[in-house]
């Protein structure tokens, strides 16, 4: 059974940076693609970023591509995936979740939460203005 444990959230001020971490255990990390999603209070969960098994393919939500403030990475030696968030704004306030999908992701499914097999409990990010 895969377990995902997120960390790195907290209360920050607008303009600050955070790096979220997600520790993966229970299966071969390099057999899984990983994604980050977030859910703001009163809103639906939304896709943020995803990275393929090999780390070669990376997918971002439109808002990330437009703003260029977030980046995803993975470290297979540490069985971890990261989300670096720069220039945080209050609208980034949300619970952030990592998710794992066995096998490939492609552009068509990278942002679909239902296509992921395992989820972490989330880490809360609060950005004050």
Helix content: under 10%
Order of SSEs: EEEEEEHEEEEE
**DSSP summary: helix tally:** 1
Q: What is the gyration radius calculated from CA atoms?
A: 14 Å
Give me the secondary-structure category: mainly beta
Distance between the termini: 40 Å
Give the DSSP E fraction (strand runs of 2 or more residues). Answer: over 45%
Overall mean pLDDT score? 96
User: Could you say which overall geometry the principal axes of the C-alpha atoms support?
Assistant: globular
Question: How is the biggest beta sheet arranged?
Answer: 7 strands, mixed
The low-confidence runs, each spanning 5 or more residues with pLDDT under 50, are none
How many E strands? 11
Fold blueprint:
Layout: E1 3-7, E2 10-13, E3 18-25, E4 32-39, E5 46-51, E6 58-60, H1 62-67, E7 70-75, E8 80-85, E9 94-102, E10 118-119, E11 123-128
Parallel strand pairs: 2-11
Antiparallel strand pairs: 1-3, 3-8, 4-5, 4-9, 5-6, 7-8, 9-10, 9-11
Features:
129 residues; mainly beta; seven-stranded mixed sheet; four-stranded antiparallel sheet
Written overview of the protein:
- This protein has 1 helix and 11 strands, in the order ββββββαβββββ.
- The strands form 2 sheets. Strands 2, 4, 5, 6, 9, 10 and 11 form a 7-stranded mixed beta sheet that branches. Strands 1-3-8-7 form a 4-stranded antiparallel beta sheet, with no helix packed on it.
- The chain is 5% helix and 49% strand.
- It has 129 residues and is mainly beta.
- It has one helix spanning 62-67, and strands spanning 3-7, 10-13, 18-25, 32-39, 46-51, 58-60, 70-75, 80-85, 94-102, 118-119, 123-128.
- It is globular.
- The mean pLDDT is 96.
